[in-house]
Design goal:
Distance between the termini: 70 Å
Strand content: 15-25%
Structural class: alpha+beta
Helix content: 25-40%
Strand order of the largest sheet: 3-2-1-6
Number of strands: 11
Order of helices and strands: HHHEEEHEEHEEEEEEH
Number of domains: 2
Radius of gyration: 26 Å
Shape: elongated
Number of helices: 6
Largest sheet: 4 strands, mixed
């Protein structure tokens, strides 16, 4: 039996089971385009392969992975930073992704995946291994081995990654592992203010409270950097 015959037979089984709609007056060949829309995944006995397909499909929108598992929790890159995401949200995404999926089973062709708690548990466990971020990494940290600029000299802001010492603005990237982003944009342009008034901006921040928070973050981060350098010398 060639591959086309096998696909026809598997597709006919799905039609017979009501998983693929078919009009009585339509030929089987007319249903082949619909077969291409089916999500065919590895068998439940290979949860690592299933999890890899899941990651490629919904957690790698570009070239970079946007899901991580760090110190027992899942984190999802939101375009600026990596906030924690609920484990039940991950499970829900897996259930939806596997709902309606099929896999090849020996002597039966394509059969429904039919996600169950046990099957989803296996995929979640495999997912943790695939997106694991070493517990030794202390946010903020670079995930791709970048050494310059130092991660603790960088703050995520609304319009990019700000290197505080140089005031250089870098593009957001999921390679910068930080759980928080400051809720304002960095603006390098000087601001005019009344003579004698105290500055209400710091590093281009737009409000006094936010600039204080940015300045406080920088002082704390700089102290940590100096301490690390002393301990390593």
């Amino acid at each position: 039996m060639n591959d086309d015959d096998a696909m026809d037979r598997a597709l006919q089984n799905l039609i017979d089971e009501g998983l693929v709609e078919s009009d009585a007056d339509e030929a089987l060949d007319d249903k082949k385009p619909q077969a291409a829309e089916l999500r065919v995944v590895p068998a439940p006995t290979n949860p690592m392969a299933v999890a890899r397909d899941l990651v490629a499909d919904i957690y790698t929108p570009g070239d970079d992975l946007v899901l991580g598992h760090h110190r027992g929790d899942f984190y999802h890159f939101d375009g600026a930073c990596w906030p924690e995401t609920e484990a039940r949200g991950i499970r829900g995404a897996i259930y939806k992704w596997l709902e309606g999926a099929v896999y090849f089973k020996d002597n039966q062709g394509l059969v429904p995946y039919e996600p169950t708690r046990r099957k989803v548990d296996d995929v979640v466990d495999a997912l943790r291994a695939i997106v694991h971020v070493a517990g030794a990494k202390e946010p903020p940290a670079w995930l791709d081995g970048t050494t310059e600029p130092l991660a603790n000299e960088v703050a995520a802001v609304g319009n990019g990654l700000l290197h505080i010492p140089s005031r250089k603005l870098l593009a957001h990237t999921p390679n910068f592992f930080s759980h928080h982003a400051l809720p304002f944009d960095f603006d390098p342009r000087p601001r005019l203010r009344p003579a004698g008034s105290r500055s209400s901006s710091s590093y281009g921040a737009t409000t006094g409270n936010r600039s204080t928070r940015c300045r406080r973050w920088w002082v704390t981060s700089s102290a940590g950097t100096r301490a690390n350098r002393r301990s390593s010398s």
